Predict the structure.
Amino acid sequence: MSSVSTEALLNFQVSESQQLITQMVRDFCEKNIRPKLMEWDEAQTFPREVFHGFGELGLMGVLVPEEYGGAGLGYHEYIAIITEVSRVCGSIGLSLAAHNSLCTGHILTFGNAAQKAKYLPKLASGEWLGAWALTEPNTGSDSGNMKCTAEQDGDYWVLNGTKCWITHGKSGDVYVILARTGAPRSKNNCSAFIVEKNTPGLSGGKKENKLGMRASETTEVILDHVRVPKENLMGKVGDGFPQAMKVLDGGRISIAALSLGIAKGAFDASVKYSKERQQFDQPIANFQGISFKLADMKTQISAAELLTHHAADLKNRGEKMTKEAAMAKYYASEVAVRIANDAVQIFGGYGYTKDFPVEKFYRDAKLCTIGEGTSEIQKMVIAREILK
């Protein structure tokens, strides 16, 4: 043990600031989200006003330094925030995570001083909502073969193509768009551009009619000869794909946190119901078939939480965490699906109705195994890192 650095060991003590943040988020969600979450889900309404409220609490720029108007917090606090929101509503947790980790996170990590000064304050305040566009109709996991192109024309780049599965694809105020600037499948063939909402030629396309996460807007983004000033290129030409992979490392921590929140919400509902529901003159929690499910659920949640905070610890210290983020995202997302499934089973027939919360957790959980890299992609990433 003497050879192990104490800096590499996790601190399991929850700080007072984390406790205060968690309670603040919990109070906000109970007041502003829980009463309307099923209404938004049924109508597929994206509640933009909630994100203005998040902005007032500093939750739209969790990781953004205070000099740019952000909260200046670390990844442990960020996990606590996303988890607490998702414990109530996965849709809202997803949108909050996408805004913070993807669009805002990309500009924070790879934007130059002028780009950060221009965009981060508005994103961190909630005045502007961020979107991040990588995926295309025929290049989901195969992003090196994207069809969306950017060609230089004097002091501008001209973007053409279609992106899909974009969170806030219509409602976003600023987009980070990844476009191909080299030959298909060639090395360093992709670049990242900041594009503002009202740029001519930029528009939202089809809105997806989804199984779950229905209050988080997901649409196509259409680029028809969109002229972007050259100063909106992030980094150098060809830097886009390496930038995206690093952004996704952090994004996968947020999806792990999203998964944790959904799992915890389903678990909490299951414990409460199992204590209240009577069969054979006693609570169903007394039956081993139920109590053992609860034991398995709690154990899996705890394991997923440890993996997620381990990745966060590495991220906070600026260390490489590609494998750890992939492990956290893979395990936590699969756990969320299993726990939501078990929750529906514990509720029985009632779990299959919209009168109880677990059917929504069940629908929402599945996206966590798909978005920001499928479970299969996570296993590829983990294996590649192991075998290096």
